Amino acid sequence: MAASIALARQITRVNINNTKICRLSTVCTDGAFCNASLKRYSDVAPSRSDPEPDVVESHNETLSNAQAHYRYIFPEILPNPDSTRRNKVCEMLERNDMMNRRSVLEIPEFYVGSILAVTASDKYAAGNTSRFVGICIDRGGCGLRAWFILRNVIDDQGIEIMYEMYSPMIREIQMLKLEKRLDESLLYLRDAPNEYSTFDFDMAEVPHVAGDHVPINPLKVKLRSRPWLERYERQDLKGVEDLGLAQKFYDRAKQLATPWEKYDIMKQYRATVTAEDQDEVFRDIHEKQQQIEQARIVRRRRKKLQSNR
Amino acid sequence: MARSVPPRLKFQILPKIRNLSTPEGPLGRIKQLQKLVGAIIQYERIESQWSRADEARGYVERLIQEAVQNGPNHKPTMELANYWLVDKDLVHKLFKVLVPRFQNYTRAYTSMFPLPLKMPGRVNYKAVLELKGNAYPHVVPHHHDNHHTLLNQLLSAANDEYRQQKLAEKLSALNISMAQFGDEDKATGDAYSGAEEDGKGRTAADDNEEAAGGSPDKTTTAA
């Protein structure tokens, strides 16, 4: 715990609503400062709060079921859907870097709402590492710039750390509880009572059988009264209880709502990586991913054998 | 039942949407597009401003794509068709007429052609947007090259023979034999159209050119 506070001290600190938000800044492999864009994953057709389908609708006969699952397991492998930002060569190089990093660091499948423990290098902490446990409240970014935010409450102080997933400072990512929540972003936990985002650092790992459905936690959060960091009444949140606002707030939210966007097929198309492009990416990484999975199984067995002795 | 990842559109789209000018904002834009999409599905060929036609084209293509991919029993697709096609007869047309038509298409379902500007006047780029496989004549008439078909070859041979005959008759009237007139030009129409002196002049010039290594013009006319 003390180590995480030390980590929080060494990096940028912003105090919003009694929450310390920290950012683990690193230098990207290309030497540029990794300024993770605040852009979240686009609505790559299946919303991440949707239950995973039994049989993934395969648009292509040749694309195996395993490959079709990759877009749930690591959505950041897909390129930026904005066509003006695409660069095929850059994407390929980044993919190679990502798979190389994944062959060394085991990055588990996780979703917004999952509880993770991240061990990162920290020269100010004892043993040069610091471990932080928290709930993933948001994730985003494409390629090497992928990021996620963990949140916890320590000594009545909300702490959030944004980790860059492929940062060389990350030593280990441990999945403590694999689950989803009702919303794609849980930033509203910042305005919820502390008990909703308090997690024990010594929390035991909740086992999850690989290949099983990822459970959805139907928990509804009761937010504190206003003022808030965001206007949650305008966000169509499913994971919050009745907000208890005056009618004028809901009227204004209704005025500003954009219900037609559900049918704006070209807007959705522009925010999506097309099926052909996704196939190309998944086929490209498939072989490497198989190798990584094999190596992981071997490593786990070895670890188990050693612990049995 | 979520919609699956869309396949790539088979024509170039702009990276961003166009804000069509309307006092109602984004909803007004969608309403205008609803009209255009309905009109294209109904009439199969429409004329509109270039920007609007191009904007509507994407929506029509995506709608047909979804309909072809998922069919009428897929609830989200039906909802989509119901939203974009205000006239409900067109929903039937989409699933019963257009889906079978475009089932095996590997290219775009629509085509768009620019229309000429009316000058003098305001610069207003217009376009024709149509569904492929419609019953109308082609927008751009395309000429088939039938030159090498058997019938045309026979006809052209007959034509040549007739001209040769005519030429021979004319020359015999002037007491000049075909041998004197020259072998090269006897089969061509050019020689026939020219007078006697012209024909002789041309023959001499052609002889000179042949001596220099053949004339490209002549080879093309012969071909």
TrEMBL record, chain A:
Keywords: Ribonucleoprotein, Ribosomal protein. It holds the Pfam family Ribosomal_L19. The keyword Signal does not apply. SUPFAM superfamilies: Translation proteins SH3-like domain. Belongs to the bacterial ribosomal protein bL19 family. This is Large ribosomal subunit protein bL19m. It comes from Priapulus caudatus (Priapulid worm).
UniProtKB/TrEMBL annotation, chain B:
The keyword Membrane does not apply. Transmembrane segments: none annotated. InterPro entries: Ribosomal_bL17, Ribosomal_bL17_sf. Residues 185-223 are annotated as: Disordered. Gene3D superfamilies: Ribosomal protein L17. It holds the Pfam family Ribosomal_L17. It comes from the Eukaryota. Keywords: Ribonucleoprotein, Ribosomal protein. Belongs to the bacterial ribosomal protein bL17 family. This is Large ribosomal subunit protein bL17m. The gene is LOC106811381.
